[in-house]
Amino acid sequence: MAEVRAQRASKPALRIGNCSGFYGDRLSAMREMLEGRQEDGHGLDVLTGDYLAELTMLILGRDTMKDPALGYARTFVRQLEDTLGLALERGVRIVSNAGGLNPAGLADRIREVARGLGLDPAVAHVEGDDLRSRSAELGFEGALTANAYLGGFGIAAALAAGADVVVTGRVTDASLVVGPAVAHHGWTPTSYDELAGAVVAGHVLECGTQATGGNFSGFRTLPHDGRPLGFPLAELAADGSCVVTKQAGTGGAVTVDTVTAQLMYEIQSTRYLNPDVTTHLDTVALREVGHDRVEISGVRGGPPPERLKVCVNELGGFRNTVELVLTGLDIDAKADWVREQLAPALTAQEVSWTRTALPPPDADTEEGASCLLRCTVKDERPDPVGRAFTSAAVELALASYPGFTMTAPPAQPAPYGVYRAAYVERGAVTHTVVHADGRREVIADPTDLAEADHESGRRPSSYAAPADTLTRRVPLGTFVHARSGDKGGDANLGLWVVNDGSGKYDARVTWLAKLISERMVRELVPEAADLEVEVHVLPNLGGVNVLIRGLLGDGVAASTRFDPQAKGLGEWVRSRMVHVQEGLL
Fold first, then answer.
1. Does an H or E element contain 16, and which?
2. What is the pLDDT of residues 146-167, one digit of tens each?
């Protein structure tokens, strides 16, 4: 064993980058990453692209309803048409989950494109995640999509067999990095700490430029020189540690805070479950080791979970919205009257009214003197949310409150989907690699399994917030960063203390950990008053992770909330006023 470890340690770090964080990301990024170089002149070994999200699976599912030959990310094909020759010339292997619901179809399309370019790459694909044909048997009958999250060992097997391009269906986002790392370093299914380190690296890379300054609450500290943000890459060592960086000459920055921002994104508890390993996020240590270079080390892992998570999307029905402008005086009375007038026409199963903040008195522009009143309706049938709804609103144009106007013409009903997470035994899934030569290989399940303790790191509700004896009332974001997002119907909110070199850092971390209790979260986010709230402390990252269950209803595609993906939740919470001791400011 010592000899094997020595051999692994002698291998150079795997240089692995990302060129896509979602279906619709910067089209030129694949070429940029293939042409780019690091400060030391090195290029990439592997380039990954993440194209799938819960909402994307719904979109791809609707694509297959129109044409069963679709179901994959077509922009990925366009990128390969432009860069496949360059990747082969430079020896960069490409790994992507762009296969979506049809990885075999995407693999065939890539081969067709390659032939047209006079190229002959070895293209493999990973399948077995798609459970639609067994949805009734497994408990999600009628689902539009049902895909188990697979791990990285199928990708590793494809690369070990010589694949130049590997495309998959629904693997976990981090698996795009775990697979190449396993193939490169020769890790086994029980190399838990190494696998956990790769999961963390994959989680940092998966959302592209979110690790280099995108969606970063400290954006004012970034260089603003007109260059687009560079996509991140990691130098992944044999022990699972890595250095996150970006290519020379690209925009943005890689700092402890930008990396923390992505680490805090949609992680839920301190136990981050992946099909290959349970990652202990409370062991992650970050350290700046150079300009735009952050080391991630110390990550510990344990046996993976007994069951696999399944992304299930179902057609929920149809929805529509009208948005009315209320201007000037008597805003409440105007809103009450139009709601009363529309009420008889609102026959949909679900009706939701929301209004933006009241305008200030004596506003110096008409827009500043206005607010918006939205009515959103949802029904399993299109008729109640179609013309019967929109015509009723339009017909009030000359018969309702003074200044009646809408922000857009009436729209047709739009179908929406409902996401939910399900779980299946591993035996229900056959993780399969189809190699470039057509050979099929089934990937064995790990034998050492365990359920994670999600209570680990969760602060007890009796852990009281500081007494209200503090001397200044300031925005929480005065020295606290935030990153928020969605996990189905749940909202995730990461809060951590700014790494600005202040000698007050440790005291600020202690203050934040004490302040953010379940009770305080409900004060900061009044919508959460009757919802389940979890707070998990992550002292190594100087912060806490908050999970607000049910804030987003049935998930992004069905949510009627103003911010259905909770993308702005963190920035709103940072703007909320809290009491802070003078000595911490």
1. strand 14-18
2. 999 999 999 999 999 999 999 9
End-to-end distance of the chain based on CA atoms, in angstroms? 52
* Closest to 152 in 3D by CA, of 129, 123, 130: 129
Q: To which H or E segment does residue 323 belong?
A: strand 307-327
| Cα gap 551→416, rounded to integer Å | 18
* Residues in CB range of 476: below 8 A, 6 or more apart: 495, 524, 573, 574, 575, 576, 577, 578
3-state secondary structure of 239: coil
SS3 121: coil
What span, in angstroms and rounded, lies between the C-alpha atoms of 178 and 443?
15
Per the document, the length of the chain is 585
SS3 state at 313: strand
66: left (phi over 0), alpha (psi -120 to 50) or beta: alpha
- Whether the per-residue pLDDT at 137 is higher than 70: the answer is yes
H or E element that contains 294: strand 293-297
Alpha-carbon span 302 to 415, nearest angstrom: 42
Looking at the DSSP bridge assignments, the partners of residue 326 are 371
pLDDT of the residue at 237? 98
286: β partners: 296
